[in-house]
Amino acid sequence: MRRTRIVATIGPASNSDEKLRELVLAGVDVFRISFAHGDIASGIALLRRVRAIAPDLAIMVDIPGPKIRAGSFGTLPVTLSVGDETELVEALGEVSTARRITVERENVLSQLKPGDRIHIGDGGVSLEIVRCKKDVSARVISGGAVMGKPGLSLPSSILNDRLPTDEDRARLEALRHEEFEILAVSFVR
User: Fold this and answer.
1) If exposure means fewest CB atoms within 10 Å of the residue's CB, which of 13, 15, 28, 117 is most exposed?
2) Beta strand 85-90 with 136-142: parallel, antiparallel or unpaired?
3) Is this structure's pTM higher than 0.70?
4) 136, pLDDT greater than 90
5) 79 has which bridge partners?
C-alpha cells in the first residue's frame, strides 16, 4: 500500500499543459497553486486549466498569509557565511547584501532582542540577533546562498498580523466559486 503522496507546486517550469500531463502520468496526487505571486485572475485561470487536465486530482490553493520580505538580493546568489555579522535595517525598495539586509516591514526590528532568530527563505539560512541598540546586528548561524526577495520568518511573539490578511480575504472571495480541495497558508505565525 502506497502511503507517500506527491504534491507538485506549479511554477514557471511546470505550468504548460504538456508538463502538467507528464506530472499526472508520473503519479502526482496534489497540485499546489501559489497565490503569493501573480494576480488573482491568473491564479484562477491556472486552477481551471489544472482542473480540466486532471479532474480527479486534488488541488491545493496556497494563500500567502502575513509575509515579511527582505529587500532584493538580486538575481545572482549572495552567500551568507556562518559566523559573519550583518546589519538589519527597515527599508522599502532598497537592495540587500551580505553585510546589510533590508527588511520590508516597519516597526518589527525594534521588537527584536538578542538571541532571537530570523530564518531567511525556506529556513536554510538563519541569523541570530546579537545587538539591538540603535542598529540591529545579527550573526549568521546557518549559512547558504540567497537571492531575489526571500521571505523572513521572525519570532511569532513580535508578529500580531491577522489571518487571513485583507489581501487573502480578497483572494478567498475571488475563489469562492472555484473547485479545489485544500486551502493552505504559507506564512503563518
Assistant:
1) 13
2) antiparallel
3) no
4) yes
5) 145
